[in-house]
Specification:
The complex is a heterodimer of chains A (560) and B (157). Chain A is built from 21 helices and 20 strands. Chain A is of the alpha/beta class and 560 residues long. In chain A, strand 12, helix 12 (281-284) and strand 13 (295-300) form a beta-alpha-beta unit. Chain A is globular and about 70 Å long. Chain B has 2 domains: 2-76, ACT domain (Alpha-Beta Plaits, 2-Layer Sandwich), CATH 3.30.70; 82-156, Alpha-Beta Plaits (2-Layer Sandwich). Chain B has 4 helices and 9 strands. In chain B, a hairpin with a 5-residue loop joins strand 2 and strand 3. The chains are: A alpha/beta (560), B alpha+beta (157). The interface between A and B is medium-sized, with 18 and 19 residues.
Chain lengths: 560, 157
């Protein structure tokens, strides 16, 4: 039986196991919306396309499944661009479906036409413009395969509206076989042997775990590996929860706002084993002084990540889960060098330079204290979703992450406006979980219209605004490096409680230290969404801090 | 240093744009780029010449090319034996003095006069990496009016 293109797309999505879609309608996708009207797929109408793609992203990161978003041609599609780039930088499996003007009008500067393939070329893993209905089903299949295999990423399908209404047989039986795309999944045995030798020679090993650890579901193998070789583990922003933060071998986050002991361990170690970390400049600081004494083993599924920023001694291309499995097997019978002295040294650093902040009795609420209180009351079980800036760093520093997929944050692109909509996706993927957004008063206003979405679907996301009246991270740089010239960083904020209540969402304002514990309890107890405005110390800074381009051993704050 | 890289790619629309945007997005310079179908009509061959002395950048270029979904294979000719050719068409103003120089050029290099008009000659020149600089020097002396180049083609030995 012949069905139309919108139906073919829909049937393909069902075959791929898609249960939820986030999107926004428009002239070029009406046939798809007609399909969705009574389809066995839950559609969530966000109030801006950017929110739809971030929601699909949060859904994907928190569940490991492919997220799907849908927007119309032209402005709908370009509004997705920021979210596609966000997902691309952080390797999130995502399908972005965009309507396109009809094939006969493409290139004519038609109403709501944009060259979506051109726009998304460098910010997606791959993209497709479908010009023939026969290509539709196989393309969707290929797109899902690409999105979730190898190094995952967003794939864009640009579908002209006339293809949505043409008819064809639906055939989803073909296998995806791309001669030009064959990711490497197992580590080369020769490289594994080399790595084992280097590990056996090491007296001061250190592991740096990145986002690849989460994507590859390698938590158990990493745990076994770290305990076997007795190496402390630092988890990057993207790797948060890939190794339990409360484990004695955990060093927390490295880099610009990392812990002193993580940066010291990297600087002093004789072997650095990177698992799924691409050595972003926020992690490495000054490259020439990064891990200066160490041999480096780099495990990554993406060959381009290897020796891009940091020169590597033993590269191993493949899936982290397989490679750590291979290494664990090889190491099982090995007697390793005693690392007692090194462990004592790392332990001493941890004791001497803990993450801390001034806890005065009076004065305004400290943002760190709010995060710690949320940790205490959620017992570390919540999914924490952050915006970008100081809120993001405090959330990374002062909540302990013992489980993967419990910390969602725009790491690579650093997209303000990510957190709130991403939390919507995370809550839909994990309805039983507490989902808390840690936001700044700047970031939250970049997608504040999503209050309407959480209100209409009663999505119980808890938004905690750390309100300091500034774009805090830039203000911090201005304070430290630009002589306190606060240019463009002061905010005249609305009354967030009133804004929330205007949308029909419970708003809470917290101004005093003594109210924090009770307020957090109330926020968590409430069944539906909550928008909580915490007025915090205005000029609180994120410390420690490595000035941009400095060596990570040169930290401001945290050493005293 | 100039490096000749060959990329075999899917012969589909948009692939050239992907390659070009990879180079521009990452700030790599393309010295020349020649594209054409191979013996297999589903595969195009791109011969790319890049000028870089940085090994790291060269490595990245090759890896990033390979990472593109539509790229089937990348070959770097730098450390291999290969044959390369580039075709020029040059329009040259006619004057008596030049004829002799042009005859010398024809004798010395793979140069052919393909058009002998009233006011100008058109020369067809087959250059390779060994003689290209000399040929260009000679042409400059002749005062070239117009020059069209194919970009380098290469094939492994």
């Amino acid at each position: 039986m012949k069905i139309n293109g919108a139906n073919i797309l829909g049937q393909a999505l069902i075959k791929e196991g898609v249960e939820h879609i986030f999107g926004y309608p428009g002239g070029s996708v009406i046939p798809i919306f007609d399909f969705l009207y009574d389809a066995p797929i839950n559609f969530f109408l966000t109030r801006h396309e950017q929110a739809a793609v971030h929601a699909a992203d949060g859904y994907a990161r928190s569940s490991g499944k492919v997220g799907v978003c849908l927007a119309t041609s032209g402005p709908g599609a370009t509004n997705l661009a920021t979210g596609i780039a966000t997902a691309h930088m952080d390797s999130v499996p995502l399908i972005a479906i965009t309507g396109q003007v009809k094939t006969s009008l493409i290139g004519n500067d038609a109403f709501q036409e944009a060259d979506v393939i051109g726009v998304t070329r460098s910010i997606s893993k791959h993209n497709y413009l479908i010009k023939d209905i026969k290509d539709l089903a196989p393309t969707v299949k290929e797109a899902f395969y690409l999105a979730r295999s190898g190094r995952p990423g967003p794939v864009v399908i640009d579908l002209p509206v006339d293809i949505q209404t043409q008819t064809a047989e639906f055939d989803y039986s073909g296998e995806v076989d791309l001669r030009s795309y064959k990711p490497t999944y197992f580590g080369h045995p020769g490289q594994i042997k080399k790595a084992v030798k280097v590990i056996r020679d090491s007296k001061k090993p250190c592991i740096i775990a990145g986002g690849g650890v989460i994507i590859s579901n390698v938590t158990d193998e990493l745990f076994k590996f770290a305990e076997k070789i007795n190496a402390p583990v630092t988890t990057t922003l993207m790797g948060m929860g890939g190794f339990p933060s409360t484990h004695e071998l955990s060093l927390g986050m490295p880099g610009m706002h990392g812990t002193v002991y993580a940066n010291m361990a990297i600087t002093e170690c004789d072997l650095l084993i990177s698992v799924g970390c691409r050595f972003d400049d926020r992690v490495t600081g000054k490259v020439s002084e990064f891990a200066p004494q160490a041999k480096i083993i780099h495990i990554d599924i993406d060959p381009t990540s290897i020796s891009k920023n940091i020169k590597v001694d033993v590269p191993i291309v493949g899936d982290a889960k397989n490679i750590l499995g291979q290494l664990n097997e090889e190491l099982a019978s090995c007697q390793l060098k005693a690392c007692g002295k090194w462990q004592k040294q790392v332990g001493d650093w941890k004791k001497k330079y803990p993450l801390k902040y001034k806890k005065e009795k009076d004065g305004k609420i400290k943002p760190q204290a709010i995060i710690e209180e949320i940790y205490n009351q959620t017992k570390g079980q919540a999914i924490i979703v952050t915006e970008v800036g100081q809120n993001q760093m405090w959330a990374a520093q002062f909540y302990q992450y013992d489980f993967p997929r419990h910390f969602l944050s725009s790491g690579g692109l650093g997209t303000m406006g990510y957190g709130f909509p991403a939390a919507i996706g995370a809550k839909i993927a994990n309805p039983q979980k507490e989902v808390v957004v840690i936001a700044g008063d700047g970031s939250i206003q970049m997608n504040i219209q999503e209050l309407a979405t959480v209100a209409s679907y009663n999505i119980g996301v808890k938004v905690v605004i750390l309100n300091n009246g500034y774009l805090g991270m830039v203000r911090q740089w201005q304070e430290l490096f630009y002589n306190r010239r606060y240019s463009g960083t002061t905010l005249n904020n609305p009354d967030f409680v009133k804004v929330a209540s205007g949308y029909g969402v419970k708003g809470v304002k917290v101004e005093k230290k003594k109210d924090v514990i009770g307020a957090v309890a109330d926020i968590l107890k409430h069944k539906g969404p909550v928008f909580a405005d915490f007025l915090i110390e205005e000029e609180e800074n994120v410390f420690p801090m490595v000035p941009a381009g400095e060596a990570i051993s040169r930290m401001i704050g945290g050493m005293a | 240093m100039k490096h000749t890289i060959q990329a075999l790619v899917e012969n589909k629309f948009g692939v050239l744009a992907r390659i070009a945007s990879l180079f521009s997005a990452r700030g790599y310079n393309i010295e020349s780029l020649a594209v054409g179908e191979t013996q297999d009509s589903t595969v195009s061959c791109m011969t790319i010449v890049v000028d870089t002395s940085d090994e790291k950048i060269l490595e990245q270029i090759k890896k990033q090319l390979n990472k593109l979904i539509d790229v089937i294979q990348v070959v770097d000719f730098t450390k291999r034996e290969y044959i390369d050719k580039e075709l020029f068409l040059a329009k040259i103003d006619k004057n008596k003095k030049d004829r002799e120089v042009i005859d010398n050029l024809v004798k010395k290099y793979p140069v052919e006069i393909v058009e002998d008009a009233v006011n100008y000659y058109i020369l067809e020149i087959r250059a390779d990496r060994h003689n290209i600089d000399d040929i260009l020097k000679e042409l400059r002396k002749l005062g070239v009016q117009e020059l069209a180049r194919t970009g380098r083609l290469a094939i492994g030995k």
